[in-house]
Amino acid sequence: MNAMKTMTIYPDAELLSQAAAVFFAERARLALADHGRFSVLLAGGSTPRRTYELLAQKPLAEQIPWHACHFFWGDERCLPDGDERRNETMVRSALLDHVPVPPAHIHSITRCEQGVEHAAALYAAELQRFFDTQQPRFDLIVLGLGEDGHTASLLPASAALHEDVRWTAVARRPEEGFSRVTLTIPILNQGACTLFLVSGQSKAEMVRTILQPRTGEITVPAQLIRPREGELFWFLDQGAAGLLKDAQTA
Ligand SMILES: O=C(O)[C@H](O)[C@@H](O)[C@H](O)[C@H](O)COP(=O)(O)O
Predict the structure, then answer these.
(1) Does position 249 have pLDDT exceeding 90, yes or no?
(2) Residue 43 CA: which ligand 1 atom is closest?
(3) Range of the domain at 119
(4) Are strands 231-237 and 5-10 parallel, antiparallel or unpaired?
(5) For residue 25, what is the domain's CATH number?
(6) Which atom of ligand 1 lies nearest, measured to the CA of 45?
(7) Structural domain count, the chain
């Protein structure tokens, strides 16, 4: 059975980011109370950055059990540590450098010194070690949406989209000079709670395609995110929701 979708539209990107930060804090609190730790998978991209910054600020920062949080990434660019194009670099500068997360709880996707396939396999092994089960289940998965319908680095028409066994795969855009490691549909659909954060008018057509598809439209990667048992939330700003029918702003 697929999860129910809940969509909320915020007047602007700042209010969306504030709501997402509060949502994160609440999920962390619930996970800690329920099973003593909070595993979260983060998206890169510009939209969630503000959410991460807000999490690092008072009063929210004081309400989050940082010692019990474990951070993972949905995708990463195979570039040297500290490269500004790496998602980890962005999340460190917005959030992780400012809060007391134990370094061992930051589960980085490596730089691919021994090749991108090796980096993908290493991350799958890291996930296996952490979850210690065949059914890894993040407490929260934060995802973004590209204008072309990609999420994480599940790019349109890429082989990674068809991976139905392994938890990680390799992705590449022909125009980029580096490869990417991405998590795959099987693991992304196992989250207890999945939250898409999408802002800006440039995403409106893709948001409409995904949330209100028309007959005959092709399926885009983000549509494949249909958690089997978890909850699925879409937080949009008015720009991103601009082409949805009957959409009400919160
Ligand atoms: O590393 C990345 O680029 C991502 O994880 C990617 O999937 C991103 O979330 C979308 O491209 C949306 O990015 P924006 O929020 O910048 O539009």
Answers:
(1) no
(2) 5
(3) 5-237
(4) parallel
(5) 3.40.50.1360
(6) 16
(7) 1
